[in-house]
Structures are given as structure tokens and as C-alpha cells.
Amino acid sequence: MTSFKTLDDLTDLSGKRVLVRVDLNVPVKDGKVTDTTRIERVAPTIMELSGKGARVILLAHFGRPKGQAVPSMSLDPIAGIVESVLDHRVHFAADCIGDKAEKAVGAMVNGDILLLENTRFHSGEEKNDPDFAKALAENGDIFVNDAFSAAHRAHASTEGLAHLLPAYAGRTMQAELVALEKGLGNPARPVVAIVGGAKVSTKIDLLQNLVKKVDALVIGGGMANTFLAARGIDVGKSLCEHDLSDTAKAIEAEALAAGCTIVLPVDGVVAREFKAGADNETVAVSAIPADAMMLDVGPESIKDINAWITKADTLVWNGPLGAFEIPPFDAATVSAAQHAARRTGEGLLVSVAGGGDTVSALNHADVADDFTYVSTAGGAFLEWMEGKPLPGVDVLKR
Ligand SMILES: Nc1ncnc2c1ncn2[C@@H]1O[C@H](COP(=O)(O)OP(=O)(O)O)[C@@H](O)[C@H]1O
Ligand SMILES: O=C(OP(=O)(O)O)[C@H](O)COP(=O)(O)O
């Protein structure tokens, strides 16, 4: 028996209004969804509920609109993509609470699927405001959480709702927890973690505990710039959170005390514009021009990183090493991904990677199927790895 209720515990679903929290925070470039993995992963839960006659109401966030209705972060265009992945009509309501939501839910028939507008358009979502959670709950009889990748957030649609309605884990939530336990519950050492990407401020705190769990921490992407700057290196116009210098220094000290090696890039590919085909050059990290951005780690760093992957028995990876969506800044991410995939295929490495953009990067490198496990989650998976309680999971426990 699992420690939480699942869809197996739901019997008569006919006509029931089921609020399903999914993660539709998918990568988008030039207005187009570039990776549908997160949608594909929640499809089984949605189709199972719909097939059993439930009225399936999808709740999701997109981006970080900070409580404002920001048009570029509307879920409206995503509804069509969900529809094509599910091969089932998906209706859309322009608000997740209030009259618009109530009217759209009222018009549903058994088996219908409805997507409600971005929950983060309301400030009550991220504050886990009980009144906002109550407004969401008014449109449902049952709550199913299938958004493992947002389970580290104690928000109204990931945590609050579970106090108000009978709450169940969806199929993906269940599968992610089982797979992570199998792959990383008792990892073979050495364990090497790669952390990159752009969400520096929301992920840097995780590293404080992660360095106690892994033998080496390879830092790339925007995260690396923040650590390099903390070491006194001028990173020019690179994505960097200078106000996190003290945090970066504290993590380096923790790592030293825990015997974890921190691996930072020694060189980088820099450009003055963030666009495909921009003029670029490779420089040592000590020579980043003041008006340039480091958009990928350089060839010497790739050698270092691949050598660490070779040393590893277990690899955990969240966050691309560079701005992989814009060639040639995909080189390091693709090289490391392909090297890890090869080692995994040879039976020499357990490789677990996760995160919306990380999955997209592995697909770009054509190796997503060659990793031991690919999670939909980035931050949530790192927090799980740290042993931190995930509010969205804990609240589902029996
Ligand atoms: N050096 C860099 N400068 C700017 N952006 C970067 C850099 N390296 C990586 N990125 C960006 O980081 C983003 C992914 O970060 P993040 O959201 O943290 O990953 P994930 O979604 O896998 O958890 C990608 O869009 C990528 O372009
Ligand atoms: O994309 C997500 O996380 P990830 O970048 O860690 O993979 C989730 O949708 C959570 O988004 P958030 O980090 O804005 O809360």
C-alpha cells in the first residue's frame, strides 16, 4: 500500500468534478512549445479520469506572473497543445476562480476536460491563501495532484486544496516518487551532481544540503556565473545574481567541510547578443569582456565535466550548462548529455536528470531515452534528493 491515496482508491467517478493539478510550465521559444514531455507525462491521469466519466478540470501555472494577469503567460495557447497531445477536446476558461470558471465547469458533461487559466494570475496562489484555495475548491469534488515538479511549492493549488477536498496522487506523481527512490534511494558512489540553468535564486539554497549528499558538484549555466563572481571574477554582463555572493561563498565552505568537490568552469563561450548566430568567442573565465555574456561553458570546462561524469557511478543533473536553445551555446550541454548517455548504455552509470528545460535539452541532444530516469521535475527533484519534505507530497499522505 502506498503512503498516499492514488487513483486506485477512487471508485465511482461518474459525473464527479475532479480538480487535477498538472505542471504545464513547458519550454516555449518564439511563442511555440518546444518540448511536450510534461504534458505527455500527465496524459495518463487525465485520460484515465475522463475515461471513467469524471469532469476533469486542470489547474496549472505558467511562468512567474507574480499575481498579475500577464497576457504572455496565459495558458490559453497551451490548451491547444494539451488537446493535440491528449487527442481529446480541451475547453478553456479565462479564469481559475469566480464566474468564468464556475460557468465553464457548469457547462461540462461527463468525460469533458477543461483547462483553467494560470493559477498564478492571483496573488493568493503563491501565498497559499485559504480564501483563494476555497475559491478553487468550489469547482471540485475531488483533488488529484499530478504535478510532482511543482510539489516543492506550498501553493494553494499544490497544497492548500488538499486540505479542502479528498486528495489523491495522480499516476505521474506516483511514478516519479517510485522511480526516484529506485534510482537514487541508495546511490552508488561517487555521486556527481550537475546543476546549471537560470533559476539561480530559487535553486542556490538547495546546494547547501546537496553538497553534503554528493561527492562532486559541477556548476554550470547562470548558476556558475554567480559562483565565479563570488570568487571575485568579473563576469561582465553574464546572467549573475551578485547579491547571492555570500550564499555562494557559504556553499563553497560547506562543500569543503563535507569533502564535496565544487567544479566551476575554467573557460566560457561569450557573446554580446543573446541570439542565434551571434558573434562569439571562447575565453578563460578570468578574461570575460566587460560588455559580454558567458552563454556556455567552454571546451576545457567540457573536458573537466566529462571527466567527472566518467568518474561517477551516479549522476544527478538539473539545469543546462548553457543557453542550449541558441546554437552554438548548446555545445557543453549536448556533449555532457551524450557522454552520460553513453556511460549509462555501457552499464557504467546510473543517470537521473530532471527539469522542464533539462528534459528539453536532453531531447535536443537526442538522449532522453538513454538516461536511467528522466524526471519532469527540476527544483522538486533536487529538494527530494536533499531529503526535504515536499509540501505537495506530504499533504497527500494518509
Ligand atoms: N549561461 C547562461 N546564461 C543565460 N541563460 C542560461 C545560461 N545557461 C543556461 N541558461 C538557461 O537556463 C534555462 C533553464 O534553467 P532552469 O529553468 O533553471 O532549468 P530547468 O527548467 O531544467 O529546471 C534555459 O532556458 C537556458 O537557456
Ligand atoms: O518548471 C518548474 O520547475 P523547474 O524549473 O525546477 O523544473 C516548475 O513548474 C516550478 O516552477 P517555479 O520554479 O516557477 O515554481
From TrEMBL:
Keyword tRNA-binding listed: no
The keyword Ligase belongs to this UniProt entry's keyword annotation: no
Annotated pathway: Carbohydrate degradation; glycolysis; pyruvate from D-glyceraldehyde 3-phosphate: step 2/5
Protein family (similarity comment): Belongs to the phosphoglycerate kinase family.
PROSITE patterns, A to Z: PGLYCERATE_KINASE
GO terms for biological process, alphabetical: gluconeogenesis; glycolytic process
Binding site for (2R)-3-phosphoglycerate: 38, 120, 153
InterPro entries membership: Phosphoglycerate_kinase, Phosphoglycerate_kinase_CS, Phosphoglycerate_kinase_N, Phosphoglycerate_kinase_sf
Keywords: ATP-binding, Cytoplasm, Glycolysis, Kinase, Nucleotide-binding, Transferase
EC number(s) recorded for this UniProt protein: 2.7.2.3
Reaction(s) this enzyme catalyzes, per UniProt: (2R)-3-phosphoglycerate + ATP = (2R)-3-phospho-glyceroyl phosphate + ADP
Amino-acid positions noted as binding ATP in the UniProt annotation, renumbered to this chain: 203, 325, 355-358
Pfam family name, one: PGK
Binding residues for substrate: 23-25, 38, 61-64, 120, 153
Organism annotation: Hoeflea halophila
Subcellular location per the Swiss-Prot or TrEMBL entry: Cytoplasm
Protein name: Phosphoglycerate kinase
